[in-house]
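An instance noted here:
***
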Amino acid sequence: MSNSPTGGPPLAADPLTRAVLELDEYAAGFGWDRPPRLFALVDTARLRAQEPGLARRLDLDTEEPGSGDGAGLAAGPAAQVSYTPIEQQELPEGQPLDEFLGTIAWPDAVGGCALTVERLMLPPAAEAEVPEDLDEAGLAAWVAEHPRREEVRMTVGVLRDGSREAALRLRSKDAPTEVLTGPELVPGLARALAATFD
């Protein structure tokens, strides 16, 4: 595991949405044309209690709201759970993403996981143009040549309880205010990530 991406807490009420938006902003700081990145999502309070040394290295050794843990613990008795993303080792080159995700098993301390990945997408209006006889490689090549293709960064997070959230950032609208969020934006990837907890 490597250091957690940290920064100002995104303005979102749901802890998973906050974590996903934080990771979207973290990935944006590295620019485009980057490989996928995988993160464990760990309950911040549990991390402080069980791994105080690691919490100090990640600058999580304070419980004040908005203290820079990237998750913004709420004050008072109704304080919500918050998640600290911890980046994992680089994904192996050349191995299909679905195959790699099938090899993952998380320890009990990990409450969820998230992945950032870049893809080419077509607008819904262009779907009718897709030739029917293409295999997966042929389809990818066809999309890559399409004049209306869009480069998109997808950040998808899931929790053990089945909760999911996604953030989409188009390269053509590369700004935090243009990021789309929603639990059903990337259902296939969310299912693949959820399966790592089965």
Remarks:
- The beta strands are 37-43, 83-87, 110-121, 150-159, 164-170, 180-182.
- Residues 28 and 126 are 27 Å apart (CA to CA).
- Confidence is low (pLDDT under 50) at residues 1-10, 64-79.
- Residues 15-42+81-197 form one domain.
